[in-house]
Amino acid sequence: MTKLILRALAGETLATPPIWMMRQAGRYLPEYRATRAHAGDFLSLCYNPELAAEVTLQPIRRYGFDAAILFADILLLPQALGAELWFETGEGPRLSTITTMAGVQALKPKDAIHETLAPIYETVRILARELPRETTLIGFAGAPWTVATYVIAGRGSKDQGAAHALKSADRATFSALIEVITEATIDYLSAQVQAGAEVVKLFDSWAGSLKGQDFQDFAVKPAARIISALKAKHPGLPVIAFPREAGAGYIGFAQATGADCVAIDNSVSPEWAAEHVQPGGCVQGNLSPTHMVTGGQDLVDATRRVVDAFKGGPHIFNLGHGITPDASPDNVALMVETLRRG
Ligand code: CP3
């Protein structure tokens, strides 16, 4: 029998939606913290195939999720292109910044990325061997705009101000950077698929700050290019796109990009998404991650509300964004039990 996630991605409406969770391998789990402590820092964990596969499997063992997502990070790709990357404890990622055409041109050619990313493909191969038969393996990359925001600012930011500033001040450099990331992303995801990823997801976490024509040019177009190139190389490959906080931009996003499923964040209601986005195909989402911290009857009610809103069409249950480190593993169990037992 075909895996539940693949059935939903093919457009089937299932009585109980399949479930997985963004950032399901993470610091809210004691077993993750133990493996992470053993590996050293976060990047050492990402580049250690045995340990990265181990933390990917932990939430599958604990909860029996329908999908496992490769344990890695969206910033490994710019690192493989030559940007320096490190993580400041308690603060998040830092990168050497690229804001000039000379900086873009100094990046490595896309063929060179596999040298750095080989351990990631090895993690995928281990997972393809070790996952339960019913579990779908999802590979991923950041969407070009989101990756560019980190490369341009050298860190995360609330408003992506540095990237917007470069986009206005030096459109040629900005567009060249988007182009380099777009083409490298195709090769990175294609290599994940060759290693055994069954589905890929594009994370555009900062799509919500692109408005009007910018949304078309830098969220829709790069996603459409990546998805059409991947599907040409891997016919039938299902793709999930996550243009987070796109609002009205979610409408028609699947059609405009060729994505098989659009992941919805929790800034829109499930009823709105069911009415406006789900007619275009499978949707994923969109329980607020805060319920994983607070739990209780509110969590049960909110889980049922999401299931109920999307029950008329293809749906993969998920959170609207990643689970946070302060979440309780028991609340995750309650969500899964509520979904599967009704
Ligand atoms: O979803 C998963 O479980 C798969 C693994 C995964 C990670 N990051 C692991 C991670 C995925 C899919 C990502 C994507 C990612 N990384 C995004 C897009 C999705 C989103 O959350 O919006 C972004 C913007 C990043 C960049 C990044 N990585 C930031 C900003 C941070 C620091 C914030 C934080 O949570 O600490 C990271 C670190 C990171 N990536 C962690 C994990 C498990 C925490 C690292 C740790 O163990 O200390």
TrEMBL record:
GO cellular component, one term: cytosol
Pfam families, per database record: URO-D
Annotated compartments: Cytoplasm
Residues of the site described as Transition state stabilizer: D73
Uroporphyrinogen decarboxylase (URO-D) domain: residues covered: 18-27, 138-154
Gene Ontology process terms (BP): protoporphyrinogen IX biosynthetic process from glutamate
Stored Gene3D superfamilies: 3.20.20.210
Domain of life: Bacteria
Enzyme Commission code(s) on record: 4.1.1.37
Record-linked InterPro entries: UROD/MetE-like_sf (IPR038071), Uroporphyrinogen_deCO2ase_HemE (IPR006361), Uroporphyrinogen_deCOase (IPR000257)
Residues where substrate binds: R23, Q24, A25, G26, R27, D73, Y150, S205, H321
Similarity section: Belongs to the uroporphyrinogen decarboxylase family.
Protein purpose: Catalyzes the decarboxylation of four acetate groups of uroporphyrinogen-III to yield coproporphyrinogen-III.
HAMAP family noted in UniProt: URO_D
Name the record gives this protein: Uroporphyrinogen decarboxylase
Organism: Cypionkella aquatica
